[in-house]
Amino acid sequence: VNVRCAVANINTTGMTAGNGFHIQGLPYPALNLSNLYLPFSIMRSQITATDGSMLGYISPNTTTVSFVNDIAAVGGLSTAIVSQIASGSGDIYFEFSYETAS
Q1: If you average pLDDT over residues 84-88, what whole number do you get?
Q2: pLDDT averaged over every residue in the chain
Q3: Fewest CB within 10 angstroms: 11, 26, 50, 71, which?
Q4: Quick one: which of 58, 2, 3 has its CA closest to 30?
């Protein structure tokens, strides 16, 4: 499946600031592999990341894209959270391909 998505002017009203930032509703569940970090092309505006870069992944058998910050300083990843989005002006654009579960 090839995905190209543009989400503009994200309104975070009603969301919990400390919750992870993800997008649900891909057309088909992903292949049953452990968290599948994909070669995403991600551009963002008014969404902060700890080290300037953001990665995306799909959990096995789900239709949900989750986002993480690349924390090069400590050699790990941290969940991108709602409070990193400037409500009403945060934008994210991404594209990737993934294999389906069936």
Answers
A1: 91
A2: 84
A3: 11
A4: 58
Residues 6+ apart with CB under 8 A from 63: 24, 25, 26, 27, 28, 29, 30
- Tell me the pLDDT tens digit for each residue of 37-64: 666 778 888 887 765 678 888 888 899 9
Rounded to an integer, what distance in angstroms lies between the CA atom of residue 35 and that of residue 41? 18
User: Cα–Cα distance between 8 and 27 in angstroms, integer?
Assistant: 20
Does residue 92 sit in helix, strand or coil? strand
Least Cα distance to 84 among 99, 74, 71 occurs for 71
The two tokens of residue 98 are 């993934």
Q: Are 18 and 82 in contact (CB under 8 A)?
A: yes
